[in-house]
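Lay summary. Proteins are chains of building blocks that fold into shapes, and those shapes determine what they do. In this project we predict the shape from the chain. Here is one chain we studied, written as its sequence of building blocks.
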Amino acid sequence: MEFGMKIRVLREQQEITVKHLAELVECTPSFISQIERGMANPSINTLKKISNVLGVSLVHFFDEDDGVTEDTEKYIIRKNKRKRFKSAMENTDVFLLSPSDIESKNIEMHLMRVAPGGKSDKLYTNSGEEVGYVLKGRLTVYLGNEKCELEEGDSMYFPGHIPHGWENNSDTESVTIWATTPAILRAGESLVLGETIFSASPKA
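And here is the predicted shape, written in a compact code that computers can read:
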């Protein structure tokens, strides 16, 4: 089921109108309607607000896999069965690398692919700790008032309570792996601040 349809099903089950949901997530009713019909793709920030209102974790809206058949398979994430969320607004794909249906929520890993020019639309905070590693390309990480330039092979740690965001201001795709403890996407613990990411300097 597409995530837009999942939103509509949950909204109707809870008897929330499109207008009311739009007010709660601070967007227009027409945008909510477009999301539900698959005509618009929200940012991760907007989807997190929707998930908080509807009482589900963000990972609920990731692409579904085909399920598991063997008991040991629940500990393995096959590369063609990763749960995925695509944010066209941020030019970012997030793939969950850790199981989403096990009881433990102590750690979570995800792979993030950011197209050239892609960036988070807000700064995020959470109650955990994060470690990232750049597999390919470059990534600018905004950490509080600091701007950190990461290159291929670099890694980074920061406590989640520091407002943070990302931007790929290069001309090649950025691929990073992130480990978070406790599990943020599955536990639905992420918070979002209102600061807007400042734009990178124009390229010559």
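What the prediction tells us: Residues 187-204 have pLDDT under 50 and may be disordered.
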